[in-house]
Design a protein that fits this description.
Radius of gyration: 20 Å
Bound molecules: Fe4 H S5, zinc ion
Strand order of the largest sheet: 5-4-3-6-8-7
Strand content: 5-15%
CATH architecture: 3-Layer(aba) Sandwich
Oligomer: single chain
CATH superfamily: HUPs
């Protein structure tokens, strides 16, 4: 197997590009896919300050590394979710990465600062753990970006993640979610801009990028992921990809290019119903935002008596 660019021995093949790469050319490939994603979707301007949501996993640490190499001013944000040893470990990987490169890492601790963890919160609210976790992370990432006056929050969602989410949204024709599924969501009243620069790179490429570049990341899966629907969708999409390389990219980019705009009206309608949360001021379609409702259920606090 030879590198497509320089013909030296290859270390990884990327079937959807019908290509194999040596280490240097693979790094060039990853850098280039991030550059193109940022350019094609007009995600970031060179001078913008970016807050990278880092979980200690391969995608977010690779993203942080790639954004720094691309010249962005990028700080990290780690949210401790209180998922036992998994959270302790993942925090260590995020901190080690930041310390070894002398980077700024902002930390938010859900149990310490908000009085509940994801296992307790999801049980109290009778929500699936990933649903309680997802809404908490979205809320806390946004809050940290606004508090720190960052221009954008960058998350490590990759091609596999986004294709699986799209499959779930299409299977249920979730119009609101489809309207919001795009690699860049512009800033609006109370919301920081959100960007997903890894949308053109797959999970396997991100693991390879970390290994080849000496980035240590948490390998264990989150113990609460069991039963997450998206894992099943990923398996199905992997089978499709096996039979027809490029299927995932075609599915996802086809949606971005030809279908996403069709749901734009739904997004506009939703934005018109937003108002500040009575407790925390975050934009919400209800009186109290989903995060504050989760906190109330998990901790028993009374809205209005805390801030
Ligand atoms: S951390 Fe949270 Fe993930 Fe764990 S509970 Fe689910 S969403 S699986 S990225
Ligand atoms: Zn709120």
């Amino acid at each position: 197997m030879k590198c497509r660019r320089c013909k030296s021995p290859a270390v990884i093949d990327v079937r959807r590009h019908n290509a194999a790469f040596c280490k240097d050319c693979f790094n060039h490939h990853c850098t280039e896919q991030v550059r193109r994603a940022i350019h094609d979707f007009k995600m970031l301007q060179p001078e913008e300050r970016v807050l990278v949501a880092v979980s200690g996993g391969k995608d977010s640490l690779a993203l942080w590394d790639l954004l720094l190499k691309a010249g962005y001013q990028a700080d990290g944000l780690y949210v401790g979710l209180g998922i036992g040893e998994y959270s302790n470990e993942s925090g260590r990987f995020a901190r080690d990465f930041a310390q070894s490169r002398d980077l700024k890492l902002i930390e938010v601790d859900l149990p310490q600062q908000y009085g509940f963890d994801i296992p307790t919160g999801s049980e109290a609210a009778r929500r699936a753990p990933c649903s309680a976790c997802g809404l908490s992370k979205r809320h806390l990432f946004n809050q940290a970006a606004i508090d720190g006056e960052y221009d954008a929050v960058a998350t490590g969602h990759n091609l596999d993640d986004e294709a699986a989410v799209l499959m779930g949204n299409v299977l249920r024709w979730e119009e609101g979610y489809l309207a919001r599924q795009y690699p860049v969501l512009p800033a609006s009243e109370g919301f920081a801009k959100k960007v997903k620069p890894l949308v053109k790179l797959g999970e396997r490429e991100m693991a390879a990028y970390c290994v080849l570049n000496g980035i240590d990341y948490i390998i264990e899966e989150c113990p609460m992921a069991a039963g997450n629907r998206h894992l099943g969708y990923k398996e199905i999409l992997n089978q499709l990809e096996e039979q027809s390389p490029g299927a995932k990219t075609a599915f996802l980019t086809g949606f971005f290019d030809r279908a996403h705009q069709r749901f734009a009206d739904v997004a506009v309608e939703e934005r018109q119903t937003l108002q500040p949360c009575a407790h925390c001021d975050a934009p919400t379609t209800n009186d109290v935002c989903a995060f504050c409702r989760l906190q109330v259920r998990a901790t028993g606090i009374t809205i209005g008596t805390t801030s």
